[in-house]
Amino acid sequence: MKLSFMLPLLVGVILLAPNLASAQATPRLTSVEPSTGKAGDILNVTGENLEKSVMTELYLTDGKNDIKVEITEQSAKALKFKIPGDVKPGRYALMVLTAGNDSKLIEQPVKVTVE
Length: 115
Hints:
This protein has one helix at 2-22, and strands spanning 28-33, 36-37, 42-48, 55-61, 66-74, 78-82, 90-98, 105-114.
């Protein structure tokens, strides 16, 4: 009798397991140093879940224009990026592109001022 009660539960766990395994952490940026730079400067970003398997690209965004930046170093808790030569002066948020089949652009609360 106990087995008949447990069987549907066990089947549910087995069916959900692949979805849980493919669930991925969300990248989160917490700071950028320095917070001001000019074209060609390399800035340091800290955060969580920043490895290439979770986050594939980084952008500067002003809400209308998204400018892809070159990531020069990348690990789970930090990355470095270069401010592109063609970016206009202004204040930008950092935005990440997540990895995987269901990739998403996620604007972060971290801001950079380009001179």
